[in-house]
Every structure is written in structure tokens, then in C-alpha cells.
Amino acid sequence: MYRRINHSRYIVLGIAGMVVVMSTFTWVMWGVAKEIRTMSEIMVQMGADVHTMTNIQRNMRADINGMQVSMDKIDKKMTRVTTDMTRVTTDMTRMTQNSLNMNANMARMSHDVGRSSHMFTSPMAYFWNMGR
Prior knowledge:
By secondary structure, the chain is mainly alpha-helical. It is built from three helices and no strands.
């Protein structure tokens, strides 16, 4: 009986089944290991990308700080420009008023020059125009 069981097809089928099961298990484990390796490579790449992104954000922070300083300078200069424009507006108003006054004075001066010219050409007319 021992001989019959040892050499029977049940032993061969059992061993063949174990080989198939172990081969399938090995193939599945190889696939899992391959996926774990791919996932590990992706995680390493993600770590490098996060590191690069952190450096870029640091540079951006420095750039934004520089922009803030520049914007503060521009704000101060714009305040000065506004003050200067207010002064220019005031000065233009004064210049306009002075030009109007000068025009009025020129008209009076022209009238006076005309009267004095008339006086030198006709001395008697001077006495007649004394009241004007």
C-alpha cells in the first residue's frame, strides 16, 4: 500500500498543484513588488517636486517682498506727485488771474499812452481832457 500511494497519480497531481499554486503566488508577488517599486519611484519624484516647489515659493516670497518695497516707493512718489499737481493747479490759477490783471493794466496803459500822445500833439486838448 505504501508503494501504491507513493507512486500514484495523486502524489503527482498534488505536487503539480502545489507547483502551480506556488508559481501563481510567486507571479502575484512579483507583480505586487513591481507596483511597489513603481509607487516608490513616484513618491521619490514627488518628494523632489515638493522640494523644488518649496524653493520656488521661497524665491516668490523674496520677489513679493521686493515688489512690496517698490509699491511703497511708488505710493510715496504718487503722494508727492499729487501734492505737486495741487501746487501746479494753485499756481496756474494765480498765473491766470495775474494774466487777466496784466491784460486790464495793458488796456489802461494803452489808453493812457493814447491820451499822453494826444496831449503832446495837441496841448490844448490836454486841458480839455483833464477831467477824464
